[in-house]
Amino acid sequence: MSAPQPISNLTQAFEKTGLSSSPRNTVSTSPTTSYMDQYKPSSKASKTLKPFSTGDVKILLLENVNQTALDIFGQQGYQVEFLKTSLPEEELIEKIKDVHAIGIRSKTRLTENVLKHAKHLVAIGCFCIGTNQVDLEFAAKSGIAVFNSPFSNSRSVAELTIAEIIALSRELGDRNMELHNGFWNKKSARCWEVRGKTLGIVGYGHIGSQLSVLAESLGMNVLYYDVTMIMSLGNSKQVGSLAELLNNSDFISLHVPETPDTKQMISTPQLAEMKDGAYLINNSRGTVVDLPALIDALKIGKLAGACIDVYPKEPRANGPHFNGDELLPFIDELKSLKNVILTPHIGGSTEEAQSAIGIEVGTVLSKYLNEGASVGAVNFPEVSLRPLDLDEQNVCRILYIHHNVPGVLKTVNQILSDYNIEKQFSDSRGDIAYLMADVSGVNSDDIKNLYTELEATSYNISTRLLY
Ligand SMILES: NC(=O)c1ccc[n+]([C@@H]2O[C@H](COP(=O)([O-])OP(=O)(O)OC[C@H]3O[C@@H](n4cnc5c(N)ncnc54)[C@H](O)[C@@H]3O)[C@@H](O)[C@H]2O)c1
Ligand SMILES: O=C(O)[C@H](O)COP(=O)(O)O
Question: Does ligand 2 lie within 6 Å of residue 285's CB atom?
């Protein structure tokens, strides 16, 4: 595996990813005007247009995003800055000012306060499943599309959970620690087979449903609770309430996203509903479990053990004292408890998952940057047109992100009416709409005029022209 490049500008062929090539040699280049000035036109620096060139695209990659993504971006010729960790807010704000796309994982918080400084940003890639770390609504309102990888690490999380179910049941964590400390403690009391036991899954999505299949293959009975009615896999059964699940399960495993509804969904009353001697596993998000309540339930022996992979606050980087970040809340109390297995948010951390995520998110980000295709965006209308023929002269792709209000198409098509519209597609999501159109028969002055007129419309959020 080649070492990640700190800043690279590698212009190579594009065949490998199947993405279109991009540098164009048509109209109106301005050596003094950066690509950024025209790329995210909210910048007041200059309205001079310049043909799209992948070599001008700047991407910031944080949190040790996989090499597969670096390879894709390198093939595109983008300028990539790669960092292994996330960044404190002030540093993030400084860096995000300059880039067109940012790649993050679960740690980096892209809040309104950060995003309002991102004047050139057009896309965010979450190289993970969760997108709760991004202010999705503010991003959409700012014309920034957010992408993630909806299922590339779900198998890894499901497999880890199976390992944890058995580890809890056999007190493996404690036996391992004891022997590492020179203490032989051969025992069978309160150690169980998992066969015939009941697993209760909260959230039967990509991870929960895979877990259900794996657990049944071990001879477990599976119940699940989900806000949506979902067809069961195998012999698993959906139950009508969280309480019913908690009352009837020997193991509870949480696989819900972080939302206002899932915040502390497991707290004192829910722990009280669980069977005596049951186990709790949280591989979802740290906010889903009330940790002090869990600690109490473990201390009084209500629960026989727990696995925690995710925490309300997590460090930015690996290391003994978390590089000055506030220590994980309640970690000392958790550490002192029997049969509690603590892992550092590694549910999706396998070679297979990270490599697949790098390819998936790297590819969708490149397609959005190069072609405007927003398929897979989580906060944005999903629009796509077949790639523009870059060998053809006098064609231009219009990417027009606008407020979803009446009258837009009439106005836009009036602006386009002097040209041949080769193809056009638009869609909306909430307050935001996105129109893609390819027009032909345009010269450099036409392109400038089109841009100026579209950007001046009262509906405009962001206009990009690819030519
Ligand atoms: N530990 C890790 O490293 C790791 C890795 C991947 C994902 N995750 C977390 O796991 C979560 C689940 O992942 P997924 O891919 O299975 O997501 P998913 O969207 O496929 O499934 C989530 C399920 O939860 C259900 N749900 C939502 N709110 C609910 C509620 N209040 N009560 C009951 N059910 C509810 C949804 O209907 C859905 O079926 C992710 O959002 C992410 O936060 C953690
Ligand atoms: O949302 C996810 O996919 C998981 O929480 C994994 O996050 P990570 O990529 O930061 O490990």
Answer: no
Distance from the CA of 11 to the center of ligand 1, in angstroms?
Answer: 39
Q: Which ligand is nearest to the CA of 241?
A: 1
CA distances from 352 to 286, 365, 400 (A): 24, 20, 37
Domains of the chain in start order, with CATH, are 46-153+350-377 (3.40.50.720), 155-342 (3.40.50.720), 388-467 (3.30.70.260)
The one-letter amino acid code at 279 reads: Y
Q: Quick one: which H or E segment has residue 200?
A: strand 198-202
Nearest bound ligand to the CA of residue 253: 1
Residue 302 has pLDDT above 50, yes or no: yes
Q: What is the ipTM of this complex?
A: 0.99
Give the residue, out of 128, 164, 207, with the most ligand 1 atoms within 8 A of its beta carbon, to mutate for a pocket test.
207
CA distance to 37, 207, 242, 372, per residue, from 350 (Å)? 39, 15, 31, 31
Mean pLDDT of the chain: 89
Angle value at C-alpha 244, between 241 and 246, nearest 5 degrees: 110
Among residues 24, 100, 255, 345, which one is catalytic? 345
Specify the pTM.
Answer: 0.90
The beta strand positions in 17-84, using DSSP E, are 58-61, 79-82
Residue 11 CB: number of other CB atoms within 10 A?
15
CA atoms within 13 A on the CB side of 448: 13
Q: Closest residue (by CA) to atom 40 of ligand 1?
A: 257
| 250-299 pLDDT tens trace | 999 999 999 999 999 999 999 999 999 999 999 999 999 999 999 999 99
Q: Is 345 a catalytic residue?
A: yes
